[in-house]
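RECORD TYPE: inverse folding
INPUT: structure tokens
STRUCTURE:
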């Protein structure tokens, strides 16, 4: 007999001695069984009609709002999310469910005239069946929700495999969702790579958010099976600062995008590109912002940068900065938590790993650019293409330069970290594969289009 898999302990990143839950991997067989139960439940979920699906999603939104304080505190404790951000994530989670609660009433196709003779041509979008969702720990409520809500609204059933580090959050969310849905419509499976691989092998559509390495393997497996797949992966996002901008305001936005939630967002800023005369003033302003930025206990409402998710993450952060003198750095509190000081470095040798690889921590590189065209070239020079923020007082750069950016999203005079859930979200190159998430784009991913040709049996 093979040995039982080792359980994973979900710990509080601010106090690792505080264990939230023990995560027992359910195994590949249990995942396959969950998918089969979801597949059996799917026709009934779809056949219940638009009103039933809309009411269920609305009920989930209301239940999330009713439990908002509890959910925010749980995210603070399990994944170290600063309280202000945790509260905002829970509010967004409720808004996502409410937004997609209206989707079942939306048109699912169109009617066209026949090209010749009597008859009609119809297009109609239909659900795939079972949507398999693999989600990360950094947005433990919002990401599972912005995947599950459109999948369910379109008539699919869902099996969710969250990251082990966010298991307590996922379990609580699953309780809320399960109370509003029929049995089998939503199932949570816990575990690690084995359970993720089992879901990849059995679900009818796959949506993944996580690292580029794992996401690439997910895409390869799903593509070989011939099932729809989307993968949102890493980022090495740039903030372009032009000389005409309000430097102090830009520095505040950029510091928050570097250090907010300890840089543990795929939309965090990793490179700051100062154009021309902006370099000197931005260097000083950014250094001051980092020195005064609130780093500490994520349960404190004033905290911007809390702990990293685990000891390995902190070690990886330290290794990334080894031998580099910081241009500016914040503070890292003493104590048991996995904290790291927000840091900006500059004058790196060409090809340095910080210019090519995502650290997933509060660190960024300051880079000079001769002009906007040079800044665009630097931005596009990395394997990733998720989001770019641009800071400028005029429209010239926006109208004439930004279409050359090879990123899926561009945010003007705003931090790179930020999501509008009613619009498409996703990146180019190694940052993303497949259709976009969120907004109406998500409904399109979770359905396939059919064309019907209707001709009369008899003509008049």
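DESIGNED SEQUENCE:
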């Amino acid at each position: 007999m093979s040995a039982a898999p080792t359980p994973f302990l979900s710990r509080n990143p601010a106090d690792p001695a505080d264990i939230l839950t023990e995560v027992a991997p359910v195994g590949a067989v249990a995942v396959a069984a969950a998918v089969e139960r979801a597949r059996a439940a799917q026709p009934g979920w779809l056949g219940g009609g638009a009103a039933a699906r809309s009411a269920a999603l609305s009920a989930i939104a209301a239940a999330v709002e009713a439990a908002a304080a509890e959910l925010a505190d749980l995210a603070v404790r399990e994944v170290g999310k600063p309280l202000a951000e945790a509260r905002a994530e829970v509010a967004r989670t409720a808004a996502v469910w409410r937004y997609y609660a209206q989707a079942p009433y939306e048109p699912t196709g169109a009617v066209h005239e026949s090209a010749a003779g009597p008859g009609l041509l119809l297009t109609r979008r239909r659900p795939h069946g079972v949507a398999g969702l693999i989600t990360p720990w950094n947005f433990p409520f919002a990401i599972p929700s912005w995947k599950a809500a459109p999948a369910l609204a379109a008539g699919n059933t869902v099996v969710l495999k969250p990251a082990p580090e966010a298991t307590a959050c996922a379990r609580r969310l699953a309780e809320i969702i399960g109370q509003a849905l029929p049995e089998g419509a939503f199932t949570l499976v816990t575990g690690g790579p084995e359970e993720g691989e089992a879901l990849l092998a059995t679900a009818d559509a796959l949506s993944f958010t996580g690292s580029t390495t794992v996401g690439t393997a997910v895409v390869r497996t799903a593509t070989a099976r011939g099932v729809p797949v989307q993968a949102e992966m890493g980022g090495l996002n740039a903030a372009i600062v032009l000389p005409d901008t309000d430097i102090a305001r830009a520095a505040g936005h950029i510091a928050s995008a570097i250090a907010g939630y300890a840089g543990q967002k795929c939309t965090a800023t990793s490179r700051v590109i100062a154009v021309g005369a902006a370099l000197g003033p931005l260097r000083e302003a950014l250094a001051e912002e980092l020195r005064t930025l609130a780093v500490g206990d994520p349960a404190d409402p004033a905290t911007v940068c809390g702990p990293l998710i685990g000891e390995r993450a902190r070690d990886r952060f330290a290794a990334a900065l080894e031998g580099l003198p910081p241009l500016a750095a914040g503070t890292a509190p003493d104590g048991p938590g996995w904290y790291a000081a927000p840091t900006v470095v500059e004058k790196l040798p060409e090809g340095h790993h910080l210019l090519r690889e995502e650290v997933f921590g509060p660190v960024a590189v300051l880079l000079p650019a001769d002009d906007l065209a040079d800044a665009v070239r630097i931005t596009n020079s990395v394997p990733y293409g998720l989001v770019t923020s641009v800071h400028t007082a005029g429209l010239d750069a926006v109208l004439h330069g930004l279409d050359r950016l090879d990123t899926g999203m561009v945010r003007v005079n705003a931090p790179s970290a930020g999501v509008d859930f009613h619009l498409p979200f996703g990146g180019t190159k190694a940052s993303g594969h497949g259709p976009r998430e969120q907004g109406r784009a998500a409904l399109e991913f979770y359905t396939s289009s059919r064309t019907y040709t209707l001709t009369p049996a008899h003509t008049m």
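NOTES: The CA atoms of residues 98 and 385 lie 30 Å apart.
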